[in-house]
Amino acid sequence: MNGDRRSGARPTLEAVAARAGVGRGTVSRVINGSPKVSEKAREAVQQAIDELGYVPNRAARTLVTRRTDTIALVVSESEHRIFDEPFFAGIIRGIGSALSETGLQLILTMAQSRNQHDRLELYLTGQHVDGVLLISLHGADPLPGRLEEMGVPTVLGGRPVGFTPYSYVDVDNRAGARQAVKYLLGKGRRRIATIAGTQDMGVGVDRLAGYRDALLATGMPELVAYGDFLEPSGVNAMERLLEQHPTLDAVFAASDAMAIGAMRVLKEHGRAIPDDVAVIGFDDSAIAAQTVPPLTSVHQPTEDMGRQMAQLLVARINGERLEQPVVILDTHLVERGSA
């Protein structure tokens, strides 16, 4: 690394702390990009680093933070769901591609219950990993905040409900849903239903908000049923919608899996797709092109999302200051036969 071979003794972490008038822990948190440092302390540490020529290279960080060269991906879902949903595969591929040349190893952990989360928190804060990626958080999960408080660099995939994390990557779910419903309106559909996702997740809240945005100025009724992003919930929600609103002529589902479940029910009830009822999903998963008819869907760049998450986390682990700790990726509608 630059500056490693200078003549004379290299500046130490203790020297930086003494020059800045702060403790070792504060210097370590600044180096690792933790937001739990006051701006005044951060500036003092940065000035001391510049004046002393301190280089927080890999060897130095290993002594200070006991680097493990391992990062954890935490998914708050069941093993069955992780390996069945294409969204997670895309995220993991993106993370893997970003880490391929860094020397960092990825471990996958799953935690749903409170006991599982408590055990996981002890592991993640016990210097077993250098940083943590979290996806599919439900509700106001305390784990991200606790990791940050303990100085563990953390990046989230998806905006959670109930709090705003320091660093996360998401897609513009609200705009994507709004575009889908406006497309249906443009095709002359006038009784547009939605199968919304779970409302304890930012993705579920935002996609429902986009549906409502598009209908707001039209005076048309909101026809809403709720699912959990999986196909069986799309089946159940579509049954309820047809029972309550038999004259509906379009459905926007908050995931491709729910849209596919909805299409199955519509066919069973003798509704032609798209002539009687148009259907749009969200994900643009590989299976969307294989349904009959092929499913129109909102494309979300899951691999890019995973790459961006990993890049942000590596930067934090390496002590780089993030110019853009929050990244929102664009979506676009992929037109196929179902709408």
Automatic annotation (TrEMBL):
Q: Does the keyword Transcription apply?
A: yes
Any one Gene Ontology MF annotation carried by this entry is:
DNA-binding transcription factor activity
Q: Where is the HTH lacI-type domain?
A: 11-65
Query: Keywords assigned by UniProt?
Result: DNA-binding, Transcription, Transcription regulation
Q: Does the keyword DNA-binding apply?
A: yes
**Matches recorded under PANTHER family:** HTH-TYPE TRANSCRIPTIONAL REGULATOR GALS, LACI-RELATED TRANSCRIPTIONAL REPRESSOR
What name goes with this protein?
Answer: LacI family transcriptional regulator
